Amino acid sequence: MTLPRPVRAEAGEPVDVTMTVNGTEVSLSLPARVTLADALRDHLGLTGTHLGCEHGVCGMCTVLVDGSAARACLLFACQLDGADIVTVEGLGRPDDLHPLQEAFGSHHALQCGFCTPGFLLSSYDLLAHKPDVAEEDLPVELSGVLCRCTGYRNILSAVSEVAGAHRDGIPEPRNCGHHVLMGHTAAKPGAKSAPEPVGVEEIELPQGDPTFTVEVTQELTASPEKTWAVLDDIDLVAACLPGAEITEHLGDDRYRGQARVSVGPIRLSFAGLAQVTERDAEAHRLRVIGQGEDVGGGRTQAVILLVAEETGAGTRLRATAQVYLTGRIAQFGRALAGDVSRRMFEQFAAAVEETAVSGVRTTARKPPGALALLAATLAAKAREWGRRLRRAEHNPPTHPKGTQR
Ligand code: FES
Ligand code: FES
After folding, report:
1. End-to-end Cα spacing for the chain
2. What is the DSSP letter of 183?
3. Region label for 94, one of left (φ > 0), alpha (ψ between -120 and 50) or beta (otherwise)
4. For 127-137, what is each residue's pLDDT tens digit?
5. Ligand 2, residues 60, 62, 116: which to mutate, most atoms within 8 A of Cβ?
6. How far apart are CA 255 and CA 240, in angstroms?
7. CA angle 369, 183, 17 (to 5 degrees)
8. 180 C-alpha vs ligand 2 centroid, how far in Å?
9. How many H helices and E strands in the chain?
10. 299 in Cβ contact with 180 (< 8 Å)
11. Ligand 1 centroid vs 145 CA: distance in angstroms?
12. 26 with 185: CB under 8 angstroms?
């Protein structure tokens, strides 16, 4: 690892730093006091790096800096200009795990999993630098990371198995390539101005599986042709989507826009791009990809397919959305985010119906507020829980004879 560069800056004064993180070059402008761990988590959305003690004691925050293990809580991001960082996100992908990740899984080497990213990268560093490490030395070699679940025995078995299988060298990290990160693209050489946010002119979907997929089908009384007339007009589509707005037509069926969502105390305001990638008037199919970035550091990307099918009595509007979340929006959890998205699509379908039936090109009514979405989602949940409770009361669980209740 190269020595961190010395930096002199006033408190709060932003310092430009360019690093390669999991194979992608990123440029950030950060106050000098921001640690590498905070830069990764809060500015790049890579929350796999965990913080325990923030004092260099627990090793939870271990990442690779220029190929060697380092505690991300003890390094300031601005000192790492030009450094190459690998985090647990770079080690493997859900569909292509690194052998260490496979071994941790098969040996049950994680309980709560909080120490796992630190152990994985610490083990990687050990096996990369000392592939012939003796099994009996593993406890000392890996003592730099603490597991509060005390799962050490299984962790040692997992690392020992990988060491035995790869005496000639541990396989390279498997997920280092070009990724969409929430930060910024590298500044152009010589450019002093603030770099452009990633994806300002380009939509790039993340690799791997979406965070969740939403499928909604709604029966409309409007004919497929009238429904398609709405879907074929991107301004109307946006107007029917709660909280969304098109601000600029960029040509080639690409659009700039914004969307506002609030869930409880979290308010998100996304600015982003959308692009129509399929517009089939014959089959009444519209495929849109979009991405938005929240100023507070959240990113959502989606592939949305809308199909208007003839039913005889009207139209069946099918909406399928594959949604990718990173950053603080991801903390909502899949279930709640999925429910909110489903509500949005239901309200979208209702607005499409209203517009198709009335034939009014401008939306007279305001799209439903995002808080209403949450309220509707929670109300639906409450109804479901109520139904379950009533079912449980009517059908109490049976207990085998002789068992105590
Ligand atoms: S959080 Fe960095 S060592 Fe504990
Ligand atoms: S598995 Fe919980 S801290 Fe290690």
Report:
1. 61
2. S
3. alpha
4. 999 999 999 99
5. 116
6. 16
7. 150
8. 29
9. 10, 12
10. yes
11. 9
12. yes
Point out which residues pair with 306 in neighbouring strands.
286, 319
Please check whether residue 332 is in contact with residue 312, taking contact to mean a CB–CB distance below 8 angstroms. no
Summarize pLDDT for 55-94 with one digit per residue, the tens: 999 999 999 999 999 999 999 999 999 999 999 999 998 7
CA distance 266 to 295: 12
Q: How far is CA 289 from the centre of its chain?
A: 16
DSSP lists the bridge partners of residue 256 as 248, 273
Ligand 1 centroid to Cα of residue 33, in Å, is 16
pTM confidence score: 0.55
Q: Does residue 344 sit in helix, strand or coil?
A: helix
Q: Which residue in the block uniquely carries the two structure tokens 């690392």? A: 159
How many residues in total does the chain contain?
405
Complete DSSP assignment for 209-235? --SEEEEEEEEESS-HHHHHHHHT-HH
**3-class DSSP state of 338:** helix
Ligand 2 within 6 A of 153 CB? no
C-alpha closest to that of 229 among 152, 281, 175, 162: 281
Biggest alpha carbon distance in the chain? 81
Q: In 3D, which of 92, 262, 275 has the Cα closest to residue 170?
A: 92
- Helices 334-358 and 370-394, interaxial angle, to 10°? 120
Tokens representing 20 are 């390669």
Distance CA 231, CA 240 (A): 10
